[in-house]
Amino acid sequence: xxxxxxxxVAPDGATAVFDPPFxxxxxxxxxxxxxxxxxxHALRRRVVAVVLVRLGGFAAGVFDGDELVASKVGSRQVHxxxxxxxxxxxxxxxxxxxxxxxxxxxxxxxxxLVLLPASSxxxxxxxxxxxxxxxxxxxxxxxxxxxxxxxxxxxxxxxxKARILGESLEACRAVRVTITEPG
Length: 183
Description:
The protein has a domain at 47-171: eRF1 domain 2 (Nucleotidyltransferase, domain 5). The chain contains 4 helices and 8 strands. The protein has helices at residues 34-43, 87-115, 131-138, 162-173, and strands at residues 6-9, 15-19, 47-54, 57-64, 67-75, 124-129, 150-155, 176-180. α2 (87-115) crosses α3 (131-138).
């Protein structure tokens, strides 16, 4: 055991590290049955806020236990990058920058609309999607009261849709297992 992770070493030197969600684990978690303690911790009822952002799409939701109690999902058009050169490329890049700005503002507004009314009850904020876009959204002053509760774990999600948001709680609760084979 190291910190909040449980590590097993096989006779051949292979290791398995169990990294639980929502650190820190409670004091004394490893004294009796550490595996049961990690499972209980992962499944404990809590209020989890989820913010998923990719350029062009966003989803924000609040789960109270297993129930999605508030959510907002949306999208904004953001064109891909252009490989053309010259004036056309510069004009296209300026238009894309404007589209990105509008998309990230919409994602931020949705996150504030959904998360702030429940902010006093939220135990943890789990994010997912595009890291630079998430940094921009979370840097907004409207969400400053939630920054201390943002989990270091970032979910790998496809285009944020209502179905993806609804399924995200399972990924938030997942115990990540990393297996390393010897040399």
